[in-house]
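Late entry, written up from scratch paper. The run itself happened at the end of the previous shift, but nothing got recorded in the book at the time, so transcribing now.
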Amino acid sequence: MPHTKEPAAATASPTRKRFIVLDVLRGFALLGICLANYPEFSLYSFQDGATLAALPSHQADGVCAFLLRMLVDGKFYTIFSVLFGIGFSLIIGNAKRRGSSGNALFYRRMIGLLAIGLAHLLLLWSGDILALYALMGMLLPLFYGLKNKTLLRWSAFFLLLPIGIDTLRWATGADPASALHALWWQTAHGVGITEENFANFLAQNDTYAAVHRFLVQGAVERMWEFVVGNRYYKVLGLFLLGLWIGRQKVYAHIGLYRPLLRKVQRIGFAIALPLSVFYAVGTDIKPLQTLIYTVSVYPLALAYMASLALLCQRKPRLLLWRLLAQPGRLALTNYLLQTVFGIALFYGIGMGLGGTEIAAAAAETASAASGTASATGGICATGISLCAVSLIALGVYLLEILLSALWMRHFRFGPLEWLWRMFTYGKRLPLRK
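Output as recorded:
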C-alpha cells in the first residue's frame, strides 16, 4: 500500500504511516458532498414543483435529479461518517502506543470540531454536519472497549433503528418532531421569513444581515431535520462501523481483506444499486422509504469505498489517486470552502445566481406560453438548471483539487486542519514545510 510519512514534529505524535487510500476516500467523498449540497446552495431544491416545471430545462433536470438521488444522495455523507470512525480508531490507537488512553485528546478534538461546526451553522450555512459529528463523536469512547462482534451488533442496531422508529410513527401517527417544526416556523416568522419568500430569500437579499436572519431560523430547521431523518442514530451507527474497520486496519491490509471487499462490492452493485432506483423514485409510506434507504444507500456507499480501495491497491500509481488525495488531505478546509463558493455564486450577497434567477426564468416561460406580459418586468433570465448546478459543483471541486495541490506544496496542513490540530494538542505547530 503506497504511503507517505508525516514528520513527527508536524503531527505532535510519533512518526506514522499516512495511507493514501484514506485521503483518496476523503477526496472522493468531498466530490459527492459538493454534488449533493449545491442544489441547496443554488436554492434549486427550495423551489416548488410548479416553478421547476416551468423551466425550459425541466425534463433534463428531472433526469439529473433522479441520477443524483440514485447515485449520490446519502452515499457520500455515509462515506464521510465511516471515515470519521476510522479516524477515531487511529487517534486512540496512536495514543495507546504512547501509553495513554487518548480520550482527553479525542474530547479536545471534538470540542474544537463542535466550535467549527457551530460557527459554520450559525454564520455561513444551515446545512452543517460538523456539529452533529462532534456531538455524536463524543459517544465513541463508550464503545471503544467492546469486542468486534459486539461493536458490529451495535452498529447494526443504530442503522436499523430508524426503520422501527418510522414504523412506530406511521402506525401511531405520533410526530415527536412537531414541536421543533412549530419552533422553526415561529423563529422564521420572527425574523421576517415566510412560506412565500423562503425559497428566494437568500438570492433576493444582498446583505449579510439578511443572510444571518435566514441562518437563525435555519439552525432550528436543521435540528428538526435531524430528528425527522433519524440522523443521530444513522451517524452513530456509521461511526461504529468505521471504528470496526479502523481496528481491523482494513485500509492498511487491503490484500488480506480482498475477499471481504469484493463481497461488499458485489452486494452493493448487484443488489443495492437496483434498489437505489426504488429509493430515487420514492414512496409516501415513510417506513418503507426508510427501509429502502437502509438497504440501498449504506451498501452502495460501502461498495464505492471497497471499489476505490481495491483499485487503489491494484493500480497504486494512477494519477487519479493523487488528484483525489489532494483535497482529501484538506477535507475540513475544503468542506467549508464549498460553502464559501456556494454563497459567492448563488446568494444575493455574491453573484446572485440562485433562486431569483430560477423564479424569473419560470415567469418568463409561463408568460410566453400564455401570451401575457411577464411579471418579471422584462428581465431576460435563463435560470440555473439542476444540470448547470451539477456542472458548477464539479467545477468547484476541480478548483479545490488545484488549490489543495498548490497549498500542500508549501504547507504541512490545511489552514483549518492546522488550527484544529493546535487546539487539540494545546501547542503551536509549524505550518510551513
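The mean pLDDT is 89.
(Scratch paper discarded after transcription.)
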